[in-house]
Amino acid sequence: MKYHFFVLTIPLLFTFFIGTTSANPFSSCPSNGYLFHQSNNVSLIDIDRQTNNQGATVSTYDAVGFNDLDNYIYGVKNKEVVRIHNNFTAETLAINGLPEHDFTAGDVHNNSLYLYAQNEGLWVVDLAAQSAAQLLKQQYAVYAFSDLAVHPSGIIYAVDNSKNIHRFDVSQSLENNQIELTASLGLTGVRNFSGQFFDNNGMFYVIDANSGDTFLFNKLSPFSFDDNFNYLTQLNIENINNTIDIARCNNAPLSTLGYDMGDAPNSYQTSLLVNGARHQVSSLLYLGLEPDEDLFAQFFPMHDDNDLGNDDQGIIFTTPTLNQGSTTFITAHIGGSIAGYLSAWIDWNNNGNFDDAYEQVIDNILLDNGEHTLAIDVPIDSVITDSTWSRFRINTNPNIAAHGQGEEGEVEDYPLTITGFDTQESYFWFPSQGHFATLAFEDRWPTQDDYDFNDIVINYRVGHVQETATGMLSRLNIDIELQSYGAGYNNGFAVKLDGIPSSSIDVSKSFMIINGKYHNTILEVPENSQNDAVLIFTDALKQYFSSDCNHGFLRVDPTCDLDRNERVTASMKVTFTTPIAYPDHLHPYLNPFIFAAPNDNHGFESPPSRALEIHLKNASPTVRADQGLFNSEHDNSNNSRVNCGVENNCDSYKNKTGIPFAILLPSDWKHPIEGKSILHAYPRIRNYISSNENKDDTWFAHPDPSNVYSMAVE
């Protein structure tokens, strides 16, 4: 994200013998600034804040500013307004309504020259009409300004020589136009702040002509009542002694080492003026090969040309285009010596921002130094385009937004192309692509426990990909997100494919992403290749989260907020060796279940491990389930054979009153808080059960608010 500007070397300007007839405007919005000295000399200050003495001028100019509408510098000479040409000769302008004062501070904005004189006031000169009007009354002009600068929004900022910063709004009427905000900078010593200007990102630079000290105000908020006047001290600038003023096009960039910003168009909040994404550059944490220090917000179309090794190469896409409904892989290269949180956004609907639902595609993945394979699902309804954008941010802390200031880290923006989905395929989602169903488990089966159904609560959805012409099933997408964990035991989570043999799974093209990290093993190794395929998400869910709440529970105690931001998400992509006939018996939600984690006794004398499975009511177990557990304790299963799901005659995983040990709900769900039975959290469920599931079938939408967990913070 570095940009390379070639500063044109201007020969020594011996303007003693050059008349105005040969003068011309300056180059269009030059990146250089022009330092005017008391000694009738002028210097250039380039984009790297290096100065270069350019020679003599015919006069001393003050209160100067660059007008980007005609590319001339305007200022004051001998109490009169002058237009300064590119050979630094000047012509005097007759301005109606402008008194003769010693104007010491000025700037140009929107074809207007603002002039300030202490104890006299502030005037605005309309350069087109060549007329002046007073903006600030005499009684308010008590500050010793050596210069002032106009923010791109039109608000004036100025630092006086008493080391105070001021802000006032020149759009107000003369009667009300007073200094809005004033704050002390806490500096010491004799100061002469004669060089003050903004760049194209709304960054305010203030130069002390006595010492060369440079201060950068990078957090100004012109329309905020509580403006942020914090500043950064920059390296000293040489050759600024006896500087009277500086003129610089405030639409040009200026480099400031120490920060990194993005490249996407400014609608994505890229420049500082719109609170763009930015990071403190550090060798401790970055993307790619080395830290990248930027010019501020050179956003598209003047974005990164990627011609150096450390420019925008921290993220590598496997393909240059993203196909609707597909999964694309990326390689994230994390540099430095500390771990950081990677987050990313893609503008799926190509509306120029990252604000829409599901556009955050990577959410707080903690990554160490090195290369990491990650996957991103492309929504089937994403907009086909060759001009959308993505943003990747690595940051020392989690929960960073797509814009705004971060800590140590880096931001990289990438243009992307989205292509149409394969019209030979059709897609069916349970419950839908944009929503989740809910799985809730009691993990004490076959023993009846408190029935609060919060031992494991998982948001769950399944995508079925079929050949349009034949209806054959070619792929499955299974997404989960852990909602709560109120179990004392450790459990795994898996999905059984009833009637689909393990040999049907193409293991080379099937994979899983858990919390953003790639796993290429999903199929449980079968004892017989014709056994039903079992897809293992994890054999121990607890390894993916930590909680400081009581007993290490996750989101079951409403009095504990320490676990609200814990995330466990996984996405499994299953490809068949050849498309299979869609089984009539196959439920759209498949056959999800939990099982005892290895080395967890689960209340038994020895760990039952995979032999202890807990499925939905009337679902079939796998061949590894311990059939001896059925009809023990409180279980009242009558048909728990492995093939009962295919035969559609299972009678399993329920107690004598028909209450299951696992439930599937067709939407997001508020689970009971710890120790509150589902019968109390959802009173209508009693009627649902007693009527053999014929009445109150929407019981799950009517909770008792005092007995369920809510993610909303009170």
TrEMBL record:
Residues 341-416 form the GEVED domain. InterPro entries: DUF4842 (IPR032295), DUF6923 (IPR054215), GEVED (IPR045474), LruC_dom (IPR031025). The keyword Signal applies. Residues 52-215 form the DUF6923 domain. Residues 1-23 form the signal peptide. Keywords: Signal. The keyword Signal applies. It holds the Pfam family DUF6923. Residues 473-700 form the DUF4842 domain. This is Uncharacterized protein. It comes from Photobacterium angustum. The lineage of its organism: Bacteria, Pseudomonadati, Pseudomonadota, Gammaproteobacteria, Vibrionales.
